[in-house]
Amino acid sequence: MRDEGLKVEIEQVYTSNYRVYGARKIWRELNRQGHTVARCTVERLMRELGIAGAVRGKRVITTIPGGQAPRAPDLVDRDFVAPAPNRCWAADFTHVKTWAGVVYVAFVVDTFSRRIVGWSAAAIKETVFVLDALEMALWQRDRDQHPVAAGELVHHSDAGSQYTSFRLAEHLDAVGIAASIGSVGDAYDNALMESTIGLYKTELIKPQRPWKTLSQVELATAEYVDWYNHRRLHGEIGHIPPVEYENNHYLTTTKPQVTNNN
């Protein structure tokens, strides 16, 4: 393919992915689409087009300690490698400044695939809004016909007051999920969520400022999560989207049913 034709393809990939992909991800996506091209060629043409990938900034700590009340142990110990979906979920939240006030956005991520399985946005950072993200995650897994099995899943978060509350602990216990609590504001302790929220802020929130209302943030977040799960390439899982990664797992682990023709 000539340079001019490649430039069209590069711009299409760039604009259809929130204008955040750098040369590596554009090169990966072009090859997924069947365009055999060298990475150095993509880098050169991107320079000629004047486009570049997004660069992450530093995250602001939004959680506050939950006091001295007894809390769940740390069952993850910074090891976010899971053997299958629904074995370890990580949770955290961030804030978005809008003209109408601060909006808080909570996420639940399956550490196996990096998939955002649940999220919630609210004008107050109380337990109910992190519970809403958990409820969405449980609903999503039921909807996908891969429900959470009691006793198999760990829910990991830092020690913010929203995650150490009795109400959340009671809810986790009721559905057979083990609570795991790390420390407050430790980037290494909940590194996967640090990465996920960093991408959310870099790829959606910062480029599209200013934000006006809660409803505007909610709609944009819903669209972003759909893209993040179904189309965004993730290097940690082989440069494919999380949903595709999970589907590949189920295809290789689910035995076909044997039908009896007698």
Features:
single chain; 262 residues; alpha/beta; five-stranded mixed beta sheet; 8 helices; globular
Topology of this structure?
Layout: H1 3-15, H2 23-32, H3 39-49, E1 88-98, E2 101-110, E3 115-122, H4 127-143, E4 153-157, H5 166-174, E5 177-181, H6 191-205, H7 214-230, H8 242-253
Parallel strand pairs: 1-4, 4-5
Antiparallel strand pairs: 1-2, 2-3
Helix pairs in contact: 1-2, 1-3, 2-3
What does this entry look like structurally?
The chain is α/β, with parallel strands linked by helices. Helix content is 40%, strand content 15%. It has a five-stranded mixed beta sheet. α1 crosses α2 and α2 packs across α3. The longest helix has 17 residues. The protein starts with a helix and ends in a 9-residue tail after the last helix.
Q: Strand order across the biggest sheet? A: 3-2-1-4-5
The overall pLDDT average reads 88
Low-confidence stretches: none
Oligomeric nature of the chains? single chain
Strand content: 5-15%
The biggest sheet amounts to: 5 strands, mixed
Query: How would you classify the helix and strand content by structural class?
Result: alpha/beta
The radius of gyration over CA amounts to 20 Å
How many distinct beta strands? 5
Please tally the helical runs, counting DSSP H or I stretches of 4 or more residues.
Answer: 8
Helix content: 25-40%
